[in-house]
Amino acid sequence: MAQVLILAQHVDGELAASTGELLAAAAIAGDPAAVIVVDEGDGAELAAKLGSLGAQNVYVASTPNASGTLITPQVAAMHAAVQAASPSAVIVGSDTDSREIAARLAVRADGALLHDVEGIEGSGDSLVVSQQAFGGSYSVRAVAARGIPIISLRPNSVEGAAPAAAGTVIPIDIAGDTAPASTISGRHEKGEQSERPSLQTADIVVSGGRGLGSQEKFVLVEQLADSLGAAVGASRAAVDAGYVDHTMQVGQTGVTVSPTLYIALGISGAIQHRAGMQSAKTIIAINKDADSPIFDIADFGVVGDIFTVVPQLIEAVKARKG
Predict the structure, then answer these.
(1) pLDDT tens, 192-227?
(2) Could you tell me the strand order of the sheet in which 112-121 lies?
């Protein structure tokens, strides 16, 4: 079978949490291979990790100040790997950087960009993807009309893992790439630390909406999330009201999630919010308004006061845990 390339993002020697899923998706469509960009002299340890996750080949681009240059080296590396490997498809994650890299690569390689994909079938010329369109109003099946398919995959869309492989290192040269590059002059990260799972990759997400009523009452969402070991999200209305930070917003202008379980508390279910979460495998909605649109997509719904229902749910979860 032809190779399927994935972009392996990494920070400080640690691969992104989505890497294993990307390789599992690649294994559906062909022989999984990975592309990484590293500082000169690095790469061997990452290649070994990628092999354990299923990468048969690892295309390594070494460049000075790789971690301090924005986007451009990854685009150049992906393009060079496409030229070297002639893959049947390219798969990247759904984070902001990966989506931009995919779009730039599609221009360079004259490929077909398939965004927001939540399922992959077949291989080679018969590769078919499932994706959402028009803000999540429709689920569609699509194929690349021309060129190589370049796929941006939603998290938690592919189950299982690719079998461990050799992770054979293949150097690729991007020194001749002349595209303008932006240098990262500084990083300013929030000092807040959380033991909760990452919102984008969490298996369970509990989100709160404007129905919580205030920032102080939003703690109810956090309490339920902590009882389930879940990530905490919010609707745009809750964010705009100042209940939580924008980084917790789920929706078309926030984070897209595809967890196994999504619990919506006091969320009416505007189309903007549904576009970011309706691919969850199971959706539970609790809202006192029986006509809320969220119930149209919920697998289970409770019409009731969240301040009565949720504390009972938390106690039931605790009792179940023993």
Answers:
(1) 556 889 898 899 999 999 999 999 999 999 999 999
(2) 138-142, 128-133, 112-121, 149-153, 89-92, 3-7, 31-38, 57-62, 168-172
Alpha-carbon dihedral angle through residues 212, 247, 273, 142, given to the nearest 10 degrees: -160
- 318 phi/psi in degrees, rounded to 5: -65, -40
pLDDT bracket for residue 124 (50, 70, 90): low
| pLDDT digits 0-9 by tens, 166-175 | 999 999 999 8
Please name each of the domains of the chain with its CATH number: 3-183 (3.40.50.620), 204-321 (3.40.50.1220)
Q: Is 73 helix (H, G, I), strand (E, B) or coil?
A: helix
CB-CB contact of 160 with 151 (8 Å): no
Nearest to 294 by CA among 219, 235, 220: 235
Q: CA 256 from chain center: how many Å? A: 7
User: 138 has which bridge partners?
Assistant: 133
Phi and psi dihedrals of 117, rounded to 5? Answer: -80, 140
Calculate the CA 114 to chain-centre distance.
Answer: 14
- 204-208 and 112-121 strand pairing: unpaired
pTM: 0.84
CA 203 to CA 159: how far, in whole Å? 12
